[in-house]
Automatic annotation (TrEMBL):
This is Exportin 7. Belongs to the exportin family. Residues 444-705 form the Exportin-7/Ran-binding protein 17 TPR repeats domain. The lineage of its organism: Eukaryota, Fungi, Fungi incertae sedis, Mucoromycota, Mortierellomycotina. PANTHER family: EXPORTIN 4,7-RELATED, EXPORTIN-7 ISOFORM X1. Keywords: Cytoplasm, Nucleus, Protein transport, Transport. Gene3D superfamilies: Leucine-rich Repeat Variant. It is found in: Cytoplasm; Nucleus.
Length: 1202
């Protein structure tokens, strides 16, 4: 590449980068810009794993440090006006600062920050996106240098120069402050504690003055009454700054933005004068009345924040009440005056006003609000506004949840107010129930006319709103309930009339039939809404608060809904297809399922005997006297949802209904008492005898679905049935009756495999595909030894050959994955269910079958090429993941004595492990970490293998060992929400280190000569590798005795450490004659001694993670670190010395003390007490290091490792 680029060419490349004519052009431009403006992103380990850094691609040799690259970016900013070049230079500076800030000296940090500030001051007319990027760059520099640079902490004073100029500079200064406040509030990813310390520093010294300055400037703008474009920009900038200040994470709770409506703002006590004395609310309310949208919307957002200031901030009850009353007064004026109502005609203002009401009520107690002198008028005004808001749902549907929240919180605190006020609020809730009911019924017409989206399509969002509505309706349950019952009866009468008319005219399409069809659809959906409303009210019943009158209303609800269900079943059986609607069918049946769930949770169970009024009404109208009878109705009704109509146009809706019905069944069968209930039902007894009914179309093997959730339905179905079947103890006869249909099916398949029967290959494949899904679900619910042995006795050895035969015929097809998933469930020993008698060979036989299965499938995987990189997960890696999981479950199941295989020369274990090693080597390590499920399965099996099986092997191939150590080393530093991979990798490292260290200690204790030799070797510093010498000396014998290795390794003598980094040639010669008296070294010990660089690499990786990263698995990280240090104490001392010397001079001495304290009180053993002591030291070491800005040092950088 050229050594340099002229400005014009550079600008062209920047333009190509952001506006490329084609992908290759962008790649070329990016490569050239990376060459001339390197980020050095691989230095100090700052590049994410798997990323290709610019320095790996090569960069300009004239640029040797990040500061030089930053100076080139600065030069570009000073000499170009091209917006693309300006954007590139700014973005590259942000990358350099974010990754390499610790490599800049304090003077360089200060100079770069000053340059950015000066550049913005001199160029206030830059494009908005460049200004935003520059402001963010300034904010990042300020954040990262806040602790070390005193000048950075006088932020407001440095920005004052912008405020002394015109509106353009003032807007720019405000945006800079907003960027800093926003950036400080973002959680850090590399050094969380340091970033939080900087945020606390801003909070304590600058945030309040910034907020006060913004408030003062807003007041000045308000008084000036100007409306030019620059003033409008200044208004918005000031309001955004104030909003950012109040949204600051004052206490380090790190709540997400999505949850900011859930709590009050924890403003520090030093802010008290702002809210008590400064006229803050007066300024905001006046600004809202004066400003036009969108500025007025931002003002209302600030008022929403002001409404949620914590109660304890105020100096006393009087000041807090004055603040509350001021808020309530302005809310009252807004709702009762024409000017306020006109402002609320704006959608943004209306929405934020509703949000402000919600946050106001969540923060302040109802007793405080009700002490307002005009509280009844205020509540009436808010109630009327809420009713209008419910009816205006088409205009602002997202505002309704805030209004529901306000009244939900209000009625939840009625016990704390006067009786008169309580009655007034209850009267309001009746009107609110009427308005909400009306809005729901009107919603049906709006959806039919295409004016709005159907809320019934998103049941999750619907149920959230219903949960809040129910508390409002139950506060005056009798009156609100009568409204719902009355409307339900009227609609039921209308529904019957429409059914009669539809029956009389038949199913032929005509003008009259079209009108009837639309009317039927409207009434059905309106009844669906009422079923949802009534069901939610039933589900909100609180047993100890409910009265007999309320239970009577709930009984009326249940009777009306059951009447509608009966009427619907009759109509469904006889209606012409023309009048049917798949969407309406889904919504209606979903509402009915919701009713069943709520009624079961409330009135079926141990406390059902206390709900006399409900069952009195159910008995008088429907003959349902007991909960069991109601359960029977529920199960019988819900079973109809499992039966398909066979109409392909209903397929999507029936699949969703199937999922919801199975969810209902799962809930009914989930509890101990409830599963006992339904186990005795006649419907369930019949279902257990006929669980594979032909009208259950989802069990049809030829029925396919692209929806993975629907594809799992048969697995969920048999999981539920298995749980019900095994709810009783003596079920042997029922079990054998239950599996009769499966026996018949599998016998037909077995016959077909030997050339008999009438099944074709595709028929066999589809049957087995469904069968293994069924068996997987069935075995999932097996929880104890007796149940498992029943299934095992049936399945083995009669049908296990079918599994092997199927995997041999269709390994690459979709049947292979269901087989492996079933087998994984079959061999998993959860709850110790896989337990056989001491005289039983079943555990060994089970693993032998597993070995046959894995060998057949694994051999195919090894020969299976990856044709497309984008599909390598589905083509190969998913099967490998299941292979790993099955192997892990088998090795850790504790039902097989694996020593038997070696004793009798059985190759079952060897075959599986050999294929396991080959599969492992066939996966690039980057892919192992790129696919989380694959990585989790791999590190889990490695952890299990290292615990019980690795050390028992006679040897292992060196490529396999190298792969394992490299994989665990690369997984530890990976960042991510799930730390399970790094935890299991650390566990595997710990097990290996523990074995090696314990072997050396044991060998030293057993052989006094070996101990003497180890002590002498520890006293020798620079020596030749004793293992290599020993191997050369013993080559003639054809074997390698490991005594020299043990002698070179043992170091638990007077110095209390073990160092495997050296030995004396003369000493080795002296002791070689004694080797025959010492035991040979274990092959793993020998490998570790010969490959010290691997241990060094792992030690450096773990040490760096402990020092520089904030992890949630520090305990897991500390366990292998101790073993690595004890095995490599000399290397650890040398590396930490290099690490300390690499830091700034003022940090070296305190850091050296911390390093020394890490091993304080640590002995050379791996006892639990010693490990716990080291973990405590490591946690203290990490906390103290997080308070300092440190430079990472890799082993390569230190010159210790090659």
């Amino acid at each position: 590449m050229a050594a340099s680029l002229d400005l014009q060419t550079l600008e062209q490349y920047c333009e190509t980068l952001y506006n490329p004519p084609n992908p290759p052009g962008r790649i070329q431009a990016e490569s050239l810009l990376n060459y001339h403006f390197p980020t050095f992103s691989n230095i100090n380990g700052s590049t994410a794993s798997g990323a290709i850094s610019d320095s790996l691609q090569g960069h300009n040799p004239n640029i040797t440090s990040p500061i030089e690259s930053a100076l080139l970016c600065r030069n570009l900013l000073e000499n170009t006006t091209n917006p693309y070049a300006l954007m590139f230079a700014t973005s590259r500076l942000k990358t350099l600062v974010d990754d390499q800030f610790t490599s800049f000296s304090s003077a360089e940090q200060h100079g770069l920050r000053t340059f950015v500030l000066q550049y913005l001051y001199e160029h206030p007319d830059l494009q908005p996106f460049i200004i935003s990027s520059q402001a963010q760059l300034f904010a990042i520099i300020t954040k990262l240098g806040w602790i070390e640079n005193q000048e950075f902490r006088t932020l407001l004073d440095q920005i004052q120069v912008f405020f002394q100029q015109g509106d353009g500079h003032r807007v720019l200064g405000v945006r800079l402050l907003t960027a800093v406040v926003t950036e400080m509030n973002l959680p850090g990813t590399k050094n969380v504690i340091k970033h939080r310390k900087a945020a606390v520093g801003l909070r304590d010294s600058q945030l309040l003055p910034i907020f006060q300055a913004a408030l003062s400037m807003l007041q000045s703008v308000l008084q000036s009454q100007q409306s030019d474009p620059q003033t409008e920009k200044l208004k918005e900038a000031l309001l955004l700054l104030m909003k950012a200040c109040l949204a600051f994470d004052f206490i380090g709770s790190s709540y997400e933005e999505s949850s900011e409506d859930q709590g009050s703002l924890q403003v520090p006590t030093t802010w008290r004068p702002v809210f008590e004395e400064s006229g803050y609310l007066d300024i905001l309310w006046e600004s809202w009345k004066t400003f036009s949208s969108p500025a007025s919307v931002l003002v209302m957002e600030c008022l929403s924040q002001a409404a949620s200031i914590r109660r304890s901030l105020f100096s006393g009850d009087d000041s807090r009440h004055a603040y509350i009353y001021r808020f309530m007064q302005d809310i009252m004026l807004t709702l009762t005056t024409a000017a306020g109502q006109n402002k609320l005609q704006d959608l943004g203002n209306f929405h934020e006003f509703c949000r402000m009401l919600s946050r106001f009520k969540m923060t302040y107690q109802l007793s405080e609000v009700c002490s307002y002198k005009d509280i009844q008028q205020w509540l009436s005004a808010v109630g009327e506004f809420t009713a209008q808001g419910f009816l205006s749902w088409k205009w602002s549907p997202n505002s309704v949840p805030y209004l529901l929240t306000f009244w939900n919180k209000t009625v939840g605190s009625l016990s704390s107010v006067k009786h008169e006020t309580e009655l007034h609020i209850e009267a309001i809730t009746v009107n609110l129930t009427r308005a909400y009911l009306k809005s729901c019924l009107e919603c049906v017409h709006a959806v039919m006319d295409g004016e709005a989206d159907d809320p019934l399509e998103s049941e999750e969002a619907l149920l959230i709103s219903l949960d809040m509505f129910t508390n409002i309706a139950r506060s005056k349950h009798t009156e609100s309930g009568q409204l719902l019952v009355s409307e339900f009866k009227n609609l039921s009468i209308k529904y019957r009339e429409l059914i009669q008319r539809a029956t009389s005219i038949g199913g032929a399409a005509s003008a009259g039939s079209t009108d009837i069809k639309e009317s039927l659809l409207v009434v059905e959906l309106q009844l669906t809404w009422l079923v949802y409303l009534m069901s939610s009210i039933i589900g909100a019943r609180v047993m100890y608060q409910s009265t007999s009158e309320q239970d009577q209303v709930d009984g009326e609800f249940a009777c009306e809904i059951l009447g509608f269900i009966h009427q619907l079943q009759v109509w469904t059986a006889q209606r012409p297809l023309y009048f049917a609607s798949p969407d309406a069918h889904l919504h209606i049946q979903s509402a009915i399922i919701y009713f069943y769930q709520q009624f079961r949770a409330t009135y079926i169970g141990e406390e059902s005997s206390k709900a006399v009024k409900v069952y009195t009404q159910l008995s008088s109208r429907w003959g349902l006297n007991t909960p069991n009878q109601v359960l029977n109705v529920i199960m019988d009704s819900a079973l109809n949802n499992l039966r398909s109509s066979g109409d392909p146009t209903w397929r999507k809706q029936e699949d969703l209904l199937l999922l919801r019905t199975l969810k209902l069944f799962t809930n009914l069968a989930s509890g101990y008492s409830s599963v006992k209930y339904i186990r005795k039902l006649d419907t369930i007894k019949a279902l257990l005898k006929n669980h594979s009914a032909p009208d259950f179309k989802f069990l049809d093997p030829t029925r396919k679905s692209s929806d993975t959730a629907v594809a799992r339905c048969r697995t969920i179905y048999y999981t539920m049935l298995s749980r019900i079947l095994f709810a009783e103890d003596n079920i042997d006869a029922e079990f054998w009756r239950f599996i009769k249909p499966w026996e018949a099916t599998l016998d037909r398949v077995a016959l077909a495999f030997v050339g008999g029967g009438d099944l074709g290959e595709e028929d066999i494949r589809l049957i087995l595909l469904g069968m293994f899904k069924d068996l997987r679900g069935f075995t999932t619910s097996i929880t104890n030894r007796r149940q498992y042995n029943l299934f095992y006795e049936w399945f083995y050895p009669t049908y296990t050959p079918l599994v092997l035969r199927a995997i041999e015929i269709w390994p690459q097809n979709e049947i292979g994955i269901p087989i492996l998933r079933f087998w994984l469930e079959f061999v998993t020993n959860k709850s110790s269910r896989v337990t056989f008698d001491s005289s039983s060979p079943n555990g060994i036989l089970l693993f032998r079958e597993t070995s046959h299965l894995l060998s057949a499938y694994g051999s195919n995987l090894l020969s299976r090429p990856i044709t497309d990189e984008s599909t390598r997960w589905s083509e190969k890696y998913k099967g490998i993941m299941l292979y790993f999981n099955i192997l892990s479950a088998s090795l850790s199941g504790k039902y097989t004595n694996f020593g038997v295989f070696k004793l009798y020369g059985d190759k079952a274990l060897d075959r599986v492990l050999d294929i396991f090693f080959q599969l492992m080597l066939a996966i690039p390590i980057d892919d192992m970490t790129a696919f989380p499920k694959l990585g989790t399965a791999f590190f889990n099996v490695i952890d299990v293998f290292a615990a019980d099986h690795m050390t028992g092997m006679p040897s292992m191939p060196q490529p396999v060992l190298e792969y394992i150590f490299r994989a665990v080393g690369e997984s530890v530093p990976l960042l991510g929400q799930d730390s399970s991979c790094s935890t299991m990798a650390c566990s595997a490292i710990d097990k290996i280190c523990s074995f090696v260290l314990n072997w050396l200690i044991k060998n030293k204790t057993r052989t006094s000569d070996g101990a003497e030799m180890a002590d002498e070797m520890l006293e020798t510093d620079e020596v030749e590798d004793p293992v290599r010498v020993a191997r050369n000396r013993l080559l003639s014998t054809g074997s390698i005795n490991g005594a020299a290795v043990a002698a070179a390794s043992a170091a638990a003598g007077a110095r209390g450490s073990i160092d495997l980094t050296g030995g004396a040639n003369s000493l080795l010669s002296k002791r070689l004659r004694e080797q025959q008296q010492l035991e040979g070294a274990h092959w793993l010990v020998e490998y570790v001694l010969r490959n010290k660089d691997i241990m060094h690499y792992l030690l450096v990786v773990l040490f760096s993670v402990v020092v520089f990263e904030n992890r949630n698995n520090h305990w897991a990280l500390s366990r292998p670190l101790l073993g690595l240090i004890l095995l490599n104490r000399d290397f650890f001392a040398e590396y930490t010395n290099t690490f300390v010397r690499a830091q700034l001079s003022d940090r070296q001495e305190p850091l050296q003390k911390l390093v020394n304290g890490l091993m304080e009180g640590i002995e050379t053993n791996l006892t639990t007490a010693n490990r716990d002591r080291f973990t405590t030291n490591a946690n203290a070491f990490r906390r103290e290091c997080s308070q300092m800005t440190l430079m990472p040092v890799s082993a390569d950088d230190s010159g210790i490792m090659t």
